[in-house]
């Protein structure tokens, strides 16, 4: 298609840049699990290259298992059950791993208010009210580095004591990140499959929860252990789930959550955001249950997860937030089908496609590195991508002498444009003719000047046109994310609305039917219809039709003070002068001559209310 378009525009084949795609595999680097380990690719914009990566699961792989245990007071019985786990788990795992190492760490919560009681008597012993000696609350305490000595593991567990805190959620995710990134302290082995087991009976705090304690600094994702104690707990917020997920993947760690059934649903939602994680429901944290959970997670979930779900992660190894590359990973069939009940240590193949859809902003060639890694594996495939964006005909992109004019030389010596429909314009004045009056920008910055005429650029938003590319059909107000609310067209930067609509973005109906109240009046006679909605005249009124007024009083209630004043001081204007400051604007006085001679009857008219002077009782008469 591209070649055809270029030929159609009279570009000869010898001047065309041919698409160049190369895939080179470096076979000199050995691998035991992932192959090939190193690939080089050359791409041009609009091109893509595919290659195959195979992943092999080794039998009896070394395993590192780190126990991260919630030691808040409610976990006392569960902590006791761990004392017999080490040796028994080691014996069970010999069927699946030739080398099992264990480590241990504990957590509670951030040791600041309101998560803990900061009374001096409670800081060092949170359980003093129960006459129990507890250890102080802590965000994370690394207790035992990875070891194959199961007796040492059991001895460390027996020395552990519970702690206490105030609120229900704990700091489990905060502690998980430290256990993942503090590799040297924890002692993760490079060649081992890494499992991080979190034991808790409560949900965990999430990012932004620390604002309750006045901690607003986001977590930096780094290790902050000093003397095996997490010192950044009181300075930084809890990590986000995305941050924790990245660190687990970056350090090749599978996470296992052992939680009581009451919290199962909360952690079940969490699993969807943490690749390579496994959730186990335990009725009681008993040693046999824990051992079964770990073995089941390793044998039937972690190993099968890769083969059945085919999890592959692609990392773009540059600091730019946006890059012009796209990745596609398609798992192919394995070399063995018996995967469900019995794990066959076989191979999985992935067809990976890397494409380039554009060039960098500067238009220069670019070298980037992409790392392809199976989830939980410590081997990866490094893909080196060479992006070729520049043409051999130079940075100007011209398929002829760079000094030659793009305009045709005529017999009289004047330079004219090669395209006949653009007319004959002097080449020396071309840029001047492409600038609007008073503007220094060529073609309004939205086109190129070719022989004195603006050739407007194409935009995915719409058409750009005009002598200086100053016009378009998309620079109009939007309504609900749609140009002119999809109820009009954009002409010269203004919306021309369809019949029945008005407004800058065609968002206002011309009809006032939506403002018609049940009594047939617009806005109940108390407002105006603006853009299809009632705007009440008096702020006391509210409602879709200004029909509500909770603060308004009835006619009698609003004037009763005035009536009472006149009844107390007399009804003549002279006698009732004291009432004029409260209701003078509402009162008019008139003489009413009765049928009997010499008797004068006075009437006070307040709105529709009339008070008779003889009987001293109010009566309602229409005016």
Which descriptors would you attach to this protein?
623 residues, alpha+beta, Immunoglobulin-like, Rossmann fold, Laminin, six-stranded mixed sheet, five-stranded mixed sheet, 13 helices, 18% helix, disordered C terminus, transmembrane helix, membrane, disulfide bond, transmembrane
Q: How do you describe this structure in short?
A:
One of its GO terms (cellular component) is integrin complex. With 623 residues, the chain is an alpha+beta fold.
Structure in words:
The protein is α+β, with helices and mostly antiparallel strands and 623 residues long. Among the domains are: 136 residues, ntegrin, alpha v. Chain A, domain 3 (Immunoglobulin-like, Sandwich); 240 residues, Rossmann fold, CATH 3.40.50; 60 residues, Laminin, CATH 2.10.25.10. Helices cover 18% and strands 27% of the residues. It is built from 13 helices and 35 strands. Strands 7-6-5-8-11-12 form a six-stranded mixed β-sheet, sandwiched between helices. Helix 6 runs parallel beside helix 8. The radius of gyration is 41 Å and the shape is flat. The termini are far apart.
